[in-house]
Amino acid sequence: MTGARVSTKLATRTWNTLDVTDLVQDWLSIGLVGIHSLKLESATSSTATLDAKENSVTGNWMYLDVTLKGPQGPIGLTGEMGATGAKGDTGAAGPQGLIGLTGEMGATGAKGDTGAAGPQGPIGLTGATGATGAQGSTGLTGPKGDTGATGPQGPTGATGATGAQGAAGATGYSVLSGAIAPAADVGVNGDFYINTAANQIHGPKASGTWPAGTSLVGPTGATGATGGYPAHAIGDNYGGGIVFYVYDSGQHGLIAAPADQSTGIQWYSGSWTTTNAVRDGIKGGQSNTDVIIANQGAGSYAAQICANYNGGVYGYGDWYLPSLTELQLMYDNIGPGAPAPLTNVGGFLSNAEVTCSNCYWSSTEVNTVSDWAKDFTVYVGFITGQGKQSPFAVRCARAF
């Protein structure tokens, strides 16, 4: 193909008959089928284009349009882009290029799964106390707690200033009284009147006139039941001790303490005086005890320990040293001298045989140096005057 040249200069476009069979065969044999023109180079550096009239190899003559081309014309418009060709084979990798500049940091990727917990590290040093955080919002109100104990009374507050005088109230009505019926000129409309002699009330007065009186005394009620205290019997446990004497059908009587207040104490506090505690009989010991303490004063002696005794569930404080008669009633009714089943239910001393080793002090005085005592020994039970310094037993009493 490179050896084909055109030596004739063509001034005008003409048709020439050329035998180019071999040329076309060469053209087709190099795989240029489908190309519709062939560029030929002239001896004078002019070019000619052969436009194929047929696309196949023939043994016939072909007509070629030979055109001499002048200088390069202006570049035509860009044609439409052809269809993308098939992807070629990947070429061999080129040498490693220079490392480029670090690009901008990309967006943060999605959070990965949490890794397994590592082993516990050593406990670090305690850090400094941080600043107090802001006050949090108030939580929900909890359930109401139990009412606490009442606190002590606070001091009385200062008296406040006197308030302003209130408005005057409406004029009220009066309740009048007298020992006679009300006269027409007594009181004003709306008043009441009590006739104290007739036990009647009149009113309210209206139009200047008093109405008839109404009795203030109702009808007599039914007679109520007879009052009184519960009846008790000798040997009953009542009033902080044992009943040893009753009267008024058991509504009143005397009570002995349930045990001895002492098994050995003197009658006086150390002063040899005449106390004038000479009363005897029921409740005589109550008066004697007051007289003895007023005379002897403070100390530890028979009358004083009875006055200080407060036996019983309610802590009765009216115990006294019994009189000689009251002491005898204890012996006869609840002591060793009592008949069965009350024999010594009071638990008195009674078994020793030494003279007066079971004696109990009474509050009845004999004279300046002696006082009456009662021996509670079984089958003895005598009464004897003994020195006030002797250590005898004491059993207190109280009345109900």
Give the structure's gist in a few sentences.
The chain has 400 residues and is mainly β. It is built from 4 helices and 16 strands.
Elements, N to C (H/E): HEEEEEEEEEEEHHHEEEEE
Low-confidence stretches: 1-18, 20-69
Number of helical elements: 4
Protein structure class: mainly beta
Radius of gyration: 73 Å
Anisotropy-based shape = elongated
The amount of beta strand, in percent, is 15-25%
Question: How would you state the average pLDDT, rounded?
Answer: 80
The tally of strands reads: 16
Largest sheet: 4 strands, mixed
Helix share of residues? under 10%
The separation of the N and C termini measures 164 Å
Model description:
The longest helix is centred in the C-terminal third of the chain and has 13 residues. Among the domains are: 70 residues, no CATH class; 42 residues, no CATH class; 163 residues, no CATH class. The strands form 5 sheets. It has a 4-stranded mixed beta sheet, with no helix packed on it. Strands 8-9-10-16 form a 4-stranded antiparallel beta sheet. It is mainly beta.
Distinctive features:
single chain; 400 residues; four-stranded mixed sheet; 17% strand
How is the topology of this model organized?
Blueprint: H1 21-29, E1 37-41, E2 47-51, E3 65-68, E4 175-178, E5 192-195, E6 200-202, E7 214-215, E8 237-238, E9 241-247, E10 252-256, E11 262-265, H2 284-296, H3 302-308, H4 324-333, E12 359-365, E13 370-375, E14 383-387, E15 392-394, E16 397-399
Parallel strand pairs: 4-5
Antiparallel strand pairs: 1-2, 2-3, 5-6, 6-7, 8-9, 9-10, 10-16, 11-15, 12-13, 13-14
